[in-house]
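User: Fold this; tokens only.

Assistant: Input:
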Amino acid sequence: MAENFLDAYPWWGSIVLLSIGLYVVMASRNYIKKVMGLSIFQTAVFIMYIQIGAMEGATAPIVDAHHSLYANPLTHVLILTAIVVGVATAALALALVVRIHAAWGSIEEDDIVRAAKREEAER
């Protein structure tokens, strides 16, 4: 991957962000925190993809007689698309959290499960 530890800092940073995002999603019982954990996880994946497309000494992919090394724009285009999809997904998830709060009066998973069991027992 890299010659030494310091050269790989973007990789280590994305691994740390992946771990934080996954932990927040798995450990949190609050739906807003889960959505934020997913956003952190997505950001880490974006950083990884951008690192894959990064090339030292490469220029933008514009035809130029003086440069022979060009960066691949595909990873950047994919990340731009993924950012738009990620924002839309987060917006939809937050809208669902608002709707869950309106229906159940809470955004804590434990409270909703208890209320659902109580409602089922009343039937």
